[in-house]
Design brief:
GO terms for molecular function: zinc ion binding. Helix 1 packs antiparallel against helix 2, helix 1 packs parallel to helix 5 and helix 3 crosses helix 5. This protein has six helices and four strands; from the N terminus they run αααβββααβα.
């Protein structure tokens, strides 16, 4: 993939997700439309399929928020019920696929966990759980424990 396309694909992906988010908010329809699924699949391919599998197995994700709601971590269960924590709207995940497919090979825009989290946010499939600052920091540290265990 040439560098021009590599620069444009994330912008297109964010644009598509933004349009879906706007449509969901305006019409209060909490489902993805067929044409939206086709558009998402044209950008994300198999990553979308794996993200939708996660959403099917775990229809609601937990959002750990501090009292003032300035800090938020989303918890996504991956394969073997392993938990990954990601930030809303930030393209980062401590999983192996993110490291290799997104960062190193640049063959994907998001990993399945980040995409599943974005879709869950858009569709309102989030259950908030308030935590203290210390609990939030503990959750944040655990993200990097997973990263170190992944190599």
């Amino acid at each position: 993939m040439n560098s021009y396309i590599r620069l444009k694909v994330p912008v297109v992906a964010e644009s598509i997700l933004g349009k879906i988010e706007k449509r969901v908010a305006e019409l209060d329809n909490k489902d993805l439309l067929d044409e939206e699924l086709l558009t998402l699949h044209s950008v994300f391919g198999n990553v979308l399929e794996r993200s939708l599998d996660i959403l099917e197995k775990h229809p609601s994700f937990t959002a750990y928020t501090t009292k003032n709601k300035l800090r938020v971590l989303l918890e996504i269960k991956g394969e073997n019920d392993r938990c990954y924590r990601v930030f809303p709207r930030i393209n980062y995940c401590p999983c192996y696929s993110f490291k290799h497919q997104v960062l190193e090979h640049k063959s994907q825009v998001f990993c399945k966990h980040v995409l599943a989290a974005r879709i869950a946010l858009i569709l309102g499939r989030i259950t908030e759980h308030e935590v203290t600052q210390d609990q939030y920091l503990m959750l944040l540290r655990s993200m990097y424990d997973i990263e170190e265990n992944n190599g």
